[in-house]
Amino acid sequence: MSPLPPGAYRPSTDRWGTFARLAKGLPEGSIAVVDRTVAKLHPTLLPTLASRNPRAIIQLTGGESAKTFTALEKVLASSLALPRSGTLLAVGGGTIGDVSTVAAHVLKRGVRLVQVPTTLLAAVDSSVGGKGAVDMTVRGRVVKNPAGVFHYADVGWVCPEFFDTLSDAQRREGALEAWKMVVSLDAPLFRRYVRKPPAMEKLVKDARAIKERVCAEDPYEQAGLRRVLNFGHTFGHVLESVSHFKLAHGDGVGLGMLLALDVGRHLGVTPEPVAAEVEAALAQGPGVLGRERAAALLRRAPMKDIRALLTADKKAGAKGELRMVLLTGIGTTEVRDVTEPEWRALWPAWTKGVRP
Ligand SMILES: NC(=O)c1ccc[n+]([C@@H]2O[C@H](COP(=O)([O-])OP(=O)(O)OC[C@H]3O[C@@H](n4cnc5c(N)ncnc54)[C@H](O)[C@@H]3O)[C@@H](O)[C@H]2O)c1
Ligand SMILES: [Zn+2]
C-alpha cells in the first residue's frame, strides 16, 4: 500500500484479474461495501470476501438511493471499529463507489480505499479520479452530488467477470461516458473508434488512461482542467433529475452531449461538421438515445424546476450562467458561461425532439 496519506492524490494503479485472485491482497479486518445485486448475481463474491476476515460487509442496494445521507450513515455506523490504518473496499457501480468514497474520507478522518467497479460506467469513469458525493433533495427534486469529497483510491481492481451480468442498456451507459472522454480529449482515438468500435476491455483501459491523464494535471479540480470531464453533464444531470432517475446517468450524459453540441453550434463555438460527426458517431458507436427521449422529459418539467436544477448544479457560474464545456473540435474544448437567453433559444427545438 502507498505511503501517501489515505485519499491523497496518487496516479491510479490498476490491477486486472479475477476477484478471487485480487481479493487475496485485501488486508484482514477491512470493511467492504457491496452492491446487493452484484452479490446475488455473483454468488462467490461474499464467500470470497468473508475468507479475508473483514470487520464488516455492508450490503447496499445499488442505484441513486445509495447516494443518500441515510446510506452513508449506515456505512459509517457499521465501520466504527475500523482502525485509521484500515481499508474500505467498494464493490459496485458508481453509486456504491461514490458513497464509499465519502465514507472513506470521513471515517477516522480518512482511511484507505480500494475501488472494485462492477458496472462499465464505474470502470471507465467513476472509480477513477477520487471524487465521491451524496445527493440532496432541494424543493422536492434530487440534486446530484452537492455534498462531496476528493479521496483517491489506493488501487482499482478491474475484474471483467463482473461485466458479464450487465444488460445492454448498462453497457451502453458506460460506453457513452467512455466516448465522452474520447470525443472531448483524444481525436486520434476517436478516429480509430469510428472506424472500428472497441471491445469492452479496450474501452475500459483507454477511458481509465484518459481520465487519469486529466486528473494527474488537476487532481483537485483547482486549475479547471478537469472541467472537460463534465462535457454533456450540465443538461445530462437535469434530464436525469426530471426523469426521477428513470433515465440512467450514462444515457443522460449521452443526451446531454447532444444538447451541448447544439449550444456550441448556436454560440459559434462548435463547427457544424464537428457537431454532425460527433452526433452520428454517438449514435453508431455507443448508441445514444434519440432526441425524442430528451424532448419528452423536458416538455413535462416546469421551467421553474429546470431553472432551479440548473442553478443548484455545482457547475453554474456566479451570475447563474451555465458553465458549460463545449467542443471546439474533436478532442478539443472550451469552457463557456452560457446565459439563460442563449440556451432558451434552443428550447423550442429541444422540446420537439429535433436538431435546432
Ligand atoms: N465519482 C465520479 O467521478 C463519477 C463519475 C461518473 C458518474 N458518477 C456517478 O455514478 C453513478 C452512476 O454509476 P452506475 O451507472 O454504475 O450506477 P449504479 O451504481 O446505480 O449501478 C447501476 C445498476 O447496475 C447494477 N449493477 C451493478 N453492477 C452490476 C453488475 N455487475 N451486473 C448487473 N448489474 C449491476 C446496480 O445494482 C444498479 O442497479 C451516478 O450516481 C453518477 O453520478 C460518479
Ligand atoms: Zn458522468
Automatic annotation (TrEMBL):
The 3-dehydroquinate synthase C-terminal domain covers which part of the protein?
A: 177-285
GO molecular function terms noted in the UniProt entry: 3-dehydroquinate synthase activity; metal ion binding
Q: Which UniProt keywords apply?
A: Cobalt, Lyase, Metal-binding, NAD
Residue ranges annotated for the 3-dehydroquinate synthase N-terminal domain, each copy included: 58-170
What the entry lists under InterPro entries is as follows: Dehydroquinate_synthase, DHQ_synth_fam, DHQS/DOIS_N, DHQS_C
Q: Which Pfam families match?
A: DHQ_synthase, DHQS_C
Cofactor(s) named in the record: Co(2+); NAD(+)
Transmembrane feature ranges = none
Kindly state a single biological-process term from the GO annotations of this entry. Answer: aromatic amino acid family biosynthetic process
**What's the protein name?**
3-dehydroquinate synthase
Name its species.
Answer: Pseudomyxococcus hansupus
